[in-house]
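pasting input
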Amino acid sequence: MEIMVNISKKWGYHGIDALKKASPGYLMLMGAFALLAVAGAAVGVHGMVVGYHHVYGVSREVPWGLLISAYVFCVVTSTGLCIISSIGHVFGGEAFMPIAKRAIFMSIIFILGGFCIIFFDIENPFRMAIYNVISPNLSSNMWWMGTLYGAYLVFMIIEYYFLLEQNHSISRLMGFAALVVGIAAHSNLGAVFGMLHGRAFWYGPYLPIYFIFSAAMSGGCAILFVTTLAAKINPEIMNQRMERAMQAITQVTAFLISTIIFFTIWKIITGMVSHDKSLVIMALVSGDYAINFWCFEVFLGMVLPLYLLIRSRGNNFGMIMWATGLMMIGIFFMRYDIVVPGQIVSVYHSLGVEEALALRTYMPSFHEFMATLFGLSFICFAYFAGEKMLNGHQLEKHEIVPEGGYICPGCGAIHFMDEGESEEDAMRRHHKIW
Amino acid sequence: MNFPKIDLNKLKNEGTESVTVKERRNFLKLGFAITGVYASGKILSLSSTYGVAQASEGSGGADFVEKYPYNPHYSMVIRQSLCIDCEKCVDACNKTNHVPEYGYRTRILTRKYQGQLDKKVEFIPVLCNHCNDAPCVRACPTKATYKDPVTGIVRMESKKCIGCKTCMLACPYDARYFSAARHAIDKCDFCWEERLSKGETQTGCSSACPTGARTFGNMTDPDNIVFKLVHQLQESVWVLRPEDGTKPNIFYMKGNMESVDNILKGQKFKYSDPAKS
């Protein structure tokens, strides 16, 4: 037993040294993301100092723009990574276990990236820290969303710590808590939109439900992308267990894309028969947002990746990487297509007044663009740093397996068999699967 | 109790000739009342029946007063056809409440008509509806916006506002904007801070209105003009976006002069003499 403890204590952490060994190209890429993040933050701070209303494209009637879309993109992806990884290390789906460390790491990074972005959208972020605590409004979805995401981040960090520690029972408990809180937080984010009665396009139970399924899809897409990309960086991370995991996640993701296609079709059809909604639907189908919708959301976000993922059979990693990489771009537009078009119909449109006849327009400004890049570049930077410094999220390599031990087909750590125990029994005991 | 049995088949048909006009009317009224058409009296109106439905319930008034949850229950009645789009109300509001150039608390919308004989255009002043069931109050994460427990005015506690702008989207009346000077969302407070709390009885906009299109008052007082304007069947009263179920406190009516005269039975109106009241 002692041997196992010694191995896992190292957490696979290789520190700054690992970066020194990285190729110049890799370091330049990381440097570029770091620069973009710093530049984005600088422009964001400039906007904060001069006043956002001077530099942002959002207006009185379209107060939520690119930043909120990007925030939604980040937290959706984070929740999705938590959902997909929980299949393995919370619910005991063996095939999903190898992705857990990378998925939880990226989930934490994505939500931090989301917080970076929302920091530059909220006008008084420092007040939020105080009044969220001393003056909570329990009927506000926004309050629940913020509070639950805070708790979610805490659970995720504890879960990640114990995952590194190879303490699967606490990690699993925390993973379960993070999953429950994450889903509650995320459906509340859907409800932030879904409970605004003045906005026909958002109102209703559709968005909270859609957000959960969409999150799972994004999570599948993200983990496929970051893992196949990691295999390009360090081919050693691909082994039999990881290949099996990729195959399983490809299947789940293809299923989830189909679900979202189904959701989208019915959103369009039902929206067509309601006056206020149909204005938005027509803007998406044939108006200002048609390119966003057809080229990015539908083609890049759903149709193309579905086709490529099925074609890849889960073992053509180059194809999976391209499919999911393009899909990430498509998903970004998918979020934008929920947030911005939901505001283009004026609340006075039905009154038939001159001022409210035209659809509202919104264009992201340079400042909004840069503040978004701050969060996204931070995510990319942290991803590339993590791949090197955490040694591709692998445990230590076990060339010599100690006596009585074996390499777990699920997580890749060394498990020790008790007397008269089979390998499978040892795995079940180790991962607390009963 | 025993009733004599009547065999309907043996009764003689009296025909409809003998039914008086009055009886016919009563009969039709009964039918309309049952189907709800009479109660709202405006099948053609595109807007709501909320105001009327509330106003016509219990026409006596006394039991109805209890239904207003605040005291004074501040409210505004907008007599749409009296509005001439002079924008004095908007100017007064901006001046009274130090509203910056990029924002507004109230504005006047224009509705154009084609093919109508009497009017080509109508002006509709809009402002915060101080809803009894305010969506902005529910949406605010930090209770920075709240229903004043006494007056029912939807107010802001600026220091608590985190600037998430959810309330701007929650509001179905576009009544909110972010004020950089206040570092918070700003909105109409029926001039509570600048006028009402200092003893005035009228808001900036209602006192500036030269025609009396904006009538401000206390809905719990049966002698108050807003109470009288809302609690009558002569003219339809409605609210904006009733489908959102927000229970607004801004009531709208066409406000034809003669009918308003009749309603108020010689009460001194604002539009006859805005300076003295």
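fyi Residues 398-434 of chain A form one domain.
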